[in-house]
Amino acid sequence: MTVLKTSLRNFLAHKGRMALSAIAVLLSVAFVCGTLVFTDTMNTTFDKLFAATSSDVTVSAKSASDTGETTSDNGRPPVMPASVVATVRGADGVARAEGTVFSTSVTVVDSQKDNLSPKSGAPTIVGSWNGNDARTMKITSGTAPHGSSQVMVDADTADKHHLKLGDEIDVISAVGTHTARISGIATFTVTNPGAAIFYLDTRTAQETLVGRTGVYTNVNVTAAKGVTDPQLKRNVSAAIGGTYKVQTAKETADANQKDVEGFLNVMKYAMLGFAGVAFLVGIFLIINTFSMLVAQRTREIGLMRAIGSSRKQVNRSVLTEALLLGVTGSILGVGAGVGIAVGLMKLMGQMGMHLSTDDLTVAWTTPVVGLVLGVVVTILAAYLPARRAGKISPMAALRDAGAPADARAGRIRAAVGLLLTAGGGFALYLASAAAKATGGSLWLGLGVVLSLLGFVVVGPLLAGGVVRVLGTVVLRVFGPVGRMAERNALRNPRRTGATGAALMIGLALVACLSVVGSSMVASATDQLDKTVGTDFIIQNDGGQPLVPQAVKAVKDTPGLKRVTEYKSTTADYTTPDGKTLKDTDITAADPTYAIDLRTKTVAGRLKDAYLPNSMSVHDKFAKAHDIHLGSKIKVAFKDGGTAELTVRAITSSDGLIDQGAKYTSIATLARYVPADKMPLDELVFASAKDGQQDTAYKALKSALHDYPQYTVRDQTDYKQALKDQIGQLLNMIYGLLALAIIVAILGVVNTLALSVVERTREIGLMRAIGLSRRQLRRMIRLESVVIALFGALLGLGLGMAWGATAQQLLALEGLKVLEIPWSTIVSVFIGSAFVGLFAALVPAFRAGRMNVLNAIATE
Question: Which of 227, 672, 771, 857 is geometrically suited to a Cys-Cys bond with 223, CB 3.0 to 4.6 A?
């Protein structure tokens, strides 16, 4: 009880000094809890949606996916004859069976040709209005669609795009373009995460999406009273045989949930990873805080020891303060985490993914995880300072001598740090020299961990040399004040090393990712320059194929010399070594693709792969299956027949574009795959007649005005798009890393604030002999700047080493250009100086306000 009282008194006495450490714990815990609440809420939202929209039993075509996703290579959903509905109705236990048709391989545009599809990645669904959908949607304006001229839209999409009754829209599918006017608006009775949904009447949906009537994509079956879903599934399966896919509501919901689970898990663990970085940075803040508090209470600890307190009691007293700090910060962090989750939901709403706070889910595990994590990390961080406090002898403490310097411990620390750094450097070297990316990535991970730990441990040793160099370059121009700032930074190398290490971690990751991102853009640009021989690339950025009418519009564009279609599908291969490879990719293109993409070959000529019954393979595939020029491969095409194709070319696997592709001609594909099963074009390449590039570019954009889902890019546009995509990803990552950098800034502020308190008497004496307030504040600001630059220098150097090693691994996958983004590196380094200035504002202001006489009288 005495230890608790003492710890509580010390905690409250230093509450101002503890505040920044508590904020670090709060931020880290809040980010973890916010991530968990946000992803749990998304899971709840999708669970409710899938449970509400799934019929008791669903019957679909055998080739349909378990999730009900209807995207197919030919742009039309897999269907079954309408006669199936009557058969299902006759099964035991069926109360109602209704045929429906829907597709997600569609684009919907308004009268101005603006795309109404969600930008969040959620699907656009066009289907027939049916009883199952009526359970989860309520018509709030107008009427359900009747006849081919009417369409109904969901309320969220109508609000977002300012649609109203009577507005004209176009539904663009592989069948053609269908025009209708909005007859009704329906509102979800459950949360719609962001899909855009349009309803036609059944006959119109069949004609628009499939191209013929008398077929359905699904049969929604409702169980009779007292019949369970598994029983109903068995009865329906027995009635229709094994020709079709039959799923219960739970199976359909589980399949849909599994489909979104991958995306949610990636988001969840990525955000938790950044929270872990923030926790790691926070550890340095807490260690520094308690180390300095222990140093400032040396005499107090000596008195405690003199009156009978044992080492364990002193140790326990410091750890109890850490426990109070951890509990306080964690409790506040859990509450802040819920706020962060709500903020993320609002942010996703701005991006088009609607999440309702009614579904806000705070599992009991979330606050437990936050509390345990925050408390454990805080206590572990405070353990070393607590142990150091317990070692102070009573007589040394009463003389205010502090803990005696342990030269042996310093030498051991330096040796361990150098050993870890050398081990990390060797692991990075092995990664850069690896023959395979998979093996090299393991060495890269080991190298990152060891080199980071090594720099952290050896930081105090590096501080002496690096700070002196920085002092010579940056501080000496400020005269005596600069030299005093340099000496202050060097006074306690361990403290400077720990403070700089906190900033080092975040900036190392920034530098590493900047190098990787810049190298990816430079490599892709280099490959485009070397291999792409076409002027224009037409594609859907969402990954959907081009509908035939859009391809025709491209071909009819004046000023073009050639147009190349590019399709892909899968097939089962039987190779010369007797192996059968299921669902293997194969690319079909026009013969002009050999001109549009200058692919390097190691044997034969690529243009020969487009001869009848011919193909190409890449060299790794050829080596693995004993394939040579003239070898025969049996290819059983998806939805088609089996061909025996002759290998006419073997391409190099070193390229980045179409790496590992196996080519054949569209004509060959068409011989074995029926016309109604032929895959749509993934891309279309176009080249202008000589001297007409600008005219053709404008003409292509005009020709595709009615198809806003497709983008026309010349090579300059394509390079910029790649740069923008990688830049957006990096900006998002930098935003997440900002949490760790904020915690690191708090660490600098805390170190300076406690350092000012520690040097109160010294500051008073300096003021007494003539140091002005302005000079004092400048000295503290310069000290902060040099500590920040120390951390930045280590972080940026370490990060560039990691990034360069990662690029060597990417080179094995075709990304061969190493690009160091010097502008980013220099900007971050200069920005670190401003971080140091910002961190010193409050400590410098407080130091300048000290009363000289009171400061001198301080013991």
Answer: 227
